Structure prediction request, 254 residues.
Amino acid sequence: MNLEGKNINFVYGLNNTISVLKSNKYSIDSIKIMIGGIAYDNSLLKSILFEYKTDIEYLDKKEFNSQFNYKHTQGIIVFFSGNLLSDFNIVNLNSDKENICYVIIDQINDPQNLGQIIRTCECAGVDGIILPKHGSVHLTNTVLQISQGAFTNIDIFMVTNITETLKYLKEHSFWITGLENSIHASKWYEIDYKKKIGIVFGSESKGIRKLVKKSCDFLATIPMQGEINSLNVSASISAVLFERSRQLDIKKEN
Prediction:
C-alpha cells in the first residue's frame, strides 16, 4: 500500500497491533477499531490508545468487516509506516558480549515460514536475522502478521551478498554453521552455539547454495526418522535455537 509516496504497512489482531503501538519505532497512520469487538473492550489496548486518539476511527461491525476481510482481526487493524530493516553496517560486531547469534536465511520464499522464523528468533533471544536482497521473500504484510509482533523486537537486516556477509562476520570472530537436512554432517546438538555464531538455513527444496555452504566453518543436520525426509525450515530453526538456549543455560549454571 502506498499513500502520498509513503510505504504503508498494516497488521491486525491484538498481539501485532499492541506490539507496533508500543514500539515507538513507527509512524502510526491510522487505527481502525470495530465497535463492540474484542479490541474495543481490551483494557491494555485502551491505555495504549490514549496517546493515539486522533488516529482512531471506530467502525460498526458491518463496515469494518466489509473493509477488512481478514481472519482473526479481533476488531482492530493498524496502518503504519517506517523502516522495518536495521542497518547491518552499524551493528557492533566487536561487542564484549560472548554469545552473539545471527540467523542467516538463504533463499526462503514462503512468507508464512519467514514470519514464523522471526517469531521463533525473537522468542529464542537471537540478536538479529540476515536476509538476502535477492532470491528470498522480504518483509511483506503477510510476514509481519505471521510474526505476531516479533518483528518490532528484533533487528532484521538485508544484505546484497550472503557470502561476503559471512566473510565479514568471520573477520569479527564469528563462527559460521550451516544447517541442512539429509547431509553427512555433525548432529545439530553437537555444535557449540555458546560463542559468537552465525547460523545459516536454506529452503527445504533447495537447501543452502554451494558458495554459501563453502563459507561455513561447520555443517550440521537434524536426522530424520520418518518416511518424509524433510523438516520445515521454521521447525529446524526452532530445534537449533532452543538447543543454543539449552547450552547457554548450562553455561550459566556452571
Remarks:
- The CA atoms of residues 98 and 195 lie 6 Å apart.
